Amino acid sequence: MIYIDPPYNTGNDFVYADDFADPLARYKEVTQQTTKSNPETMGRFHTNWLNMMYPRLRLAANLLRDDGVIFISIDDNEVTNLKRLCDETFGEENFAGQFPWRKRTAKSDVPFGISQDYEWVLCYAKSDDFCACLEGGTRKYFETDDFPGRPWRIHDLTKQTSASERPNSFFTIVNPKTGEKYPANPNRTWAVTKETFEQYYSQNRIVFPGEYDFLNISKPALRYFIDDDMAKAGDKFGFIPVSTNLPNNIGMTQDGTKEITDIFENKVFGFPKPLDFIKYFVKASTVTSKNNNDIILDFFSGSATTAHAVMQLNAEDGGNRQFICVQIPELCDEKSEAYKAGYKNICEIGKERIRRAGAKILAETNQQNGQLEPGAEEKPLPDIGFRVFKLDTSNLKAWDNTPVTEDDMQLLLDRMNGMIHRVKSDRSDLDMIYEIMLKLGVPLTYSVGKIEVNGKTAYTVGDDCLLLICLAEDVQPEDVEAMAEYAPAKVIIARDSFADDTAMANAHYILRDRGIELKLV
To answer: Measured between alpha carbons, how far is 395 from 402 in angstroms, rounded to an integer?
Structure first.
C-alpha cells in the first residue's frame, strides 16, 4: 500500500523543484510574472504542480504489487486535475473510490459564506486483485438438525425488476409439500427463473414460510450455506466492504495537531493528518494480510504520521506490517517552534517522532501485559526498530573520462593510482555494506552483524548469513577458509583487500569447492 499527502498547490514555489523542460524562472522572465511565485492566473499554475506529481505517480505505479493500492490526500485546488493524472497513470478502470474527509469544523470568516471543511482521498488499485475490507458484519447463520454441521442463512429471493423487464421471473411459486402458492409481485419479480427455482429446490436451497419456528418470513427465501460463503469470499470471509462514507471517529486536523503536540510537548509541525485517519486506510488495505510483512510506503512523509500509524496498528492487532517513509530534508523556518526546539529540517522531526512514538507504544504494551489476569496470553511486543538512510552518490570512485593529452600523462597516471583503492576515503564500512545490499537486491531490513575472522573485521547480512562481506586489508587464503566456515550464500570481498593476485585467485577456488559464490567489489 502507498499513502501520500503531497504538498498542496497553494501558489508558492515547490520545495520539490524538479528540473523539467522549461525552468520556472525562465518562464517568469519571458511572461513577466514576477509578483507571485505561482499565481492563480499563471498559465503554469496547475502545470507546475502536476509536473512535480507525474513522475512520482509513475514510479508509485511501478512499485505497487498486483494487489496493491494507493491513497492520495488532496484539497479542492487540484482534486480534478489529480484524478485525470491518476486515470492516465493507474488506468480509469482501477479507480476504486473518492473519500471525502472532514478536516475541520465550520468556520465563519470564509469567502462567499461557504466553509470548505472537506478534503479528498483518491484511491486507485494496481489491478482488480485488490479488495479493501474491514472486520465486522458477520452474517447470522442458523444451525438446524436437518443440516448438521452446515450452518446456513437466508437471502431475499426477489429482485427490484418488473414483470415486463423479467417475464421469465414472473411466475407463481408453489410449495410442493403444502401446495401453498406465492404469486410474483409484478413490480418486484423473483430473482430466479422457474427452471432455476426448481434446481435450487432440489438442492435444498429454498426455505418456505412455516418451515422453521424461529424464522418470521412471508414468502420463500434463498438458503446459503456457510461453506459456500466461505468458498466464495476466500480470505475476505467475515469482513465487510469499505464505504466512502468515512466514520466520524477517524479524526480531524486538530486531532493530528494535538497528537504531535503531545509527543513533542510543542507544535513542531503544521497540519499533520490524525493517526486514526491513516490507520483506517492501512487497516482497510491490509487487514486480511496483516501478518504477511505488507509494506506501507509514504514518500511525502512529513512528520512520519504513517510510520506512527503502522506501529500503532501492529501493536493493536498483532500484525507485522512494515513502513518506508521518504522525505526530502526541507528546512524548518528559523522562526518556527520546530527550529527553536532544535529541529533544523522536517526529517529530524519525523525521525524523532518515530523514536518517541515507538517508545510510547512499547511502554503501553508492557503496561497492558502487566495488567492481565494470571494465565492470560500476553500481547507480543511490537517491533519499533527502524533504519535511516540518506540519498548519496556511490561509495565507489568513478573513473574520470576527461580526455588527456600526451603532455598530461602524469595526470593519467595519478588518476590510475587514485583508483587502486576504489572506496572513497570519507565512507565507512557500513556505507559500503548497504550499497552492496542494494545492488544485490537484499532488503535493507536484514540484520547486519560485525564479526572477527582471523583478526580481520567482516560483516554478516541476514540471520542465516545470506552474505559475508569483508573490506579489511591483507586478506589471505586462510582468511577465506575461515569465512567459508560461516556457510554464507555469497562472500563479497573488496578487490584491493587481497594481499596479492594469488590470494584473490585462491579465494575463488576455495569458495567454489564449498559451493559458495565469490563477488568482488
So the answer is: 21
C-alpha angle 55/59/61, rounded to 5°?
Answer: 115
CA atoms within 13 A on the CB side of 367: 6
Residue with cell 498486483: 66
CB 152 within 8 A of CB 159: no
Where, residue-wise, is CATH 3.40.50.150 in the chain?
1-131
Confidence band (pLDDT; 50, 70, 90) for 423? confident
Spatial CA neighbour of 104 closest among 96, 88, 115: 115
Distance of CA 414 to the CA centre of its chain: 48
Q: Which residue has the cell 485546488?
A: 77
φ and ψ at 141, to 5 degrees?
A: -110, 150
Pairing mode, if any, of strands 69-74 and 95-102? unpaired
Contacts of 361 (CB under 8 A, 6+ apart): 311, 312, 315, 382, 384
- Nearby residues of 147 by Cβ (< 8 Å), 6 or more positions away: 204, 225
Residue 311 region by backbone torsions, left for phi larger than 0, else alpha for psi between -120 and 50, else beta? alpha
d(CA 325, CA 299): 6
Q: DSSP assignment, residue 249?
A: G
DSSP string, 380-396: PPP------------SB
| Environment class of 416 (CB within 10 Å of its CB; exposed 0-12, middle 13-18, buried 19+) | exposed
Confirm if 521 and 440 have CB atoms less than 8 A apart.
no
What is the distance between the alpha carbons of residues 278 and 270, in angstroms, rounded to a whole number? 17
Q: CA-to-CA distance for 103 and 247, rounded, in angstroms? A: 13
Mean predicted confidence (pLDDT) in 488-505: 94
Q: How far apart are CA 327 and CA 303, in angstroms?
A: 9
- Share above pLDDT 90 across residues of the chain, in percent, rounded to a whole number: 73
For residue 284, give the nearest of 130, 100, 138, 103 by alpha carbon: 130
The string of DSSP codes covering 232-247 is: HHGGGTTEEPPPSS--
- Judged on CB neighbours under 10 Å (0-12, 13-18, 19+), 55 is exposed
CB count within 10 Å of CB 57 equals: 22
349-363: pLDDT as tens digits: 999 999 999 999 999
Site of grid cell 438438525 = 145
Task: Please give the radius of gyration of the chain, using alpha carbons only, rounded to the nearest integer.
Answer: 32
CATH architecture type of domain 1-131 = 3-Layer(aba) Sandwich (3.40)
Lowest-confidence segment of 25-34, 56-65, 122-131, 450-459 by average pLDDT: 25-34
Side-chain half-sphere CA neighbours of 495 within 13 A: 8
Distance CA 109, CA 105 (A): 13
Strand-pair partners of 298: 325
Per residue in 70-95, pLDDT tens?
A: 999 999 989 999 999 999 999 999 99
Q: What angle do CA 212, 216, 217 make, to 5 degrees?
A: 95
